[in-house]
Amino acid sequence: MSNIVNVGVIGLGTVGSSVVKILKRNRKEILAKTGLDVRVKKACDLRDKRSVAGSAYTKNVNDVLNDPEIEIVVETMGGVTPAKQFILKAIANGKSVVTSNKEVIAKHGREIISAADNAGVQVLFEASVCGGIPIIHALRNSLSANNIKEICGIVNGTTNYILSKMSGEKFTFEEALKQAQEKGYAEADPTNDVEGYDAMYKSAILAHVVTGGFVDLKDIYREGITKISPIDIAYAKNIGYVIKLLAVIRNDGKELEVRVHPTLIEKDHPLAKVSDNYNAVFVKGDAVGDLMFYGQGAGGDPTASAVISDILEVACTGSSCEGDDCCGDDCCGHDHALAPMLKLKSMDNVKSRYYIRLETYDKPGVMASIASVFSKKKVSIREVVQHGSDGSVAEIVIILHANREKDIQAALKAIAKLNDVKKISNVIRVGID
Ligand code: HSE
């Protein structure tokens, strides 16, 4: 067998360009370690990228998709259209695909992976979750003996940077976002990051990796960080917590939870110490116990590191069916049917502790009336903080014990209607439990 592996790259933005550069820079080392001579035969972008890809550069995507010598297509363009179409065409042409595209895998992974299984090729997407952190490989390979009970991850660097700046340097959300944009972490339109869509795509992919099934994105509870204020961060700090945007995947063997929301984390938890634009994933396996993976979740070179590891994995293992003549029946032991769709536990039944910040009129009996609502709804209070007020309006922070979401929401609805409650300023889940 020839040790030359011809690769075609579609999309020469930050990640695609880094893939081309690193394959060139580390070619000898990769050859020495793996015995594989990985060459970028064609690299496509609509912008002129000859400075990156040299003679491999092409503007025509079909030069990549139809080249019979290209075994592996790297898709680093992002988005759904036309990336999905290019991925499916590469598969139909018998090529394995390596992608960094979380959106296309989260939304269409089921169809894409089924197409690849039927064609006897592979689709790998390590770079789609947490850039350079090899979390998918670890879950699929090193941890395959385990039932993965829980994954809690800081999987979005932009929001972690913003929250870190709000916490460490007392920036407002707007100031921190502006700095994230100046540093190139956040896009001009930051919606995908700050509203939690990026983290939601990654959590759907992690749920797939640990279960083999797929989640309908509409079923994932998603909340971003735009409502977090410096006041919440200061209160959290006072009572020993930091606020992080968490992706939570929890599997108790009966029901699966997948959700993304800001969370108050105890300051001594390893995830609480992950700052700036770093990512970290905390994993609980039934055999291995607790593990934490930490590193750069974005950026050209870290993400390219993950892309190249997938290229080498495809090249080392050959097609997923271990033979070129898989017939789609039992010859390879794989089930070529579409993977199952997963039913998620209803958010109503998810139990969490809660932080609630309220503004009330500063009158006798206000606290008692709030406590009475919680008591009627069988919601248990753990801690109450009230700093001195201006005599007319008081700010109260209440920390609740773990309660069902449904009961909390019902209690909050009733509290919002109390005459002496001016407003419920924020509600944030607390703890990883
Ligand atoms: N925008 C993402 C982040 C990086 O800020 O983490 C790509 O997934």
Structure overview:
The structure is a single chain. The chain is 36% helix and 27% strand. The chain contains 15 helices and 18 strands. The protein has helices spanning 14-25, 27-34, 50-53, 61-65, 83-92, 102-119, 135-142, 157-168, 173-182, 191-194, 197-211, 230-238, 300-317, 366-376, 405-416, and strands at residues 4-10, 37-44, 57-58, 72-75, 96-99, 123-124, 148-154, 214-215, 221-222, 241-251, 256-266, 278-285, 289-296, 341-342, 351-361, 381-386, 393-404, 421-430. The strands form three sheets. Strands 7, 9, 10, 11, 12, 13, 15, 16, 17 and 18 form a ten-stranded mixed sheet that branches. Helix 3 (50-53) links the parallel strand 2 (37-44) and strand 3. Bound molecules: L-homoserine (HSE). L-homoserine is lined by residues 156-158, 185, 193, 198, 297-298.
Quick summary of this structure?
The protein has helices spanning 14-25, 27-34, 50-53, 61-65, 83-92, 102-119, 135-142, 157-168, 173-182, 191-194, 197-211, 230-238, 300-317, 366-376, 405-416, and strands at 4-10, 37-44, 57-58, 72-75, 96-99, 123-124, 148-154, 214-215, 221-222, 241-251, 256-266, 278-285, 289-296, 341-342, 351-361, 381-386, 393-404, 421-430. It is an alpha/beta fold and 433 residues long.
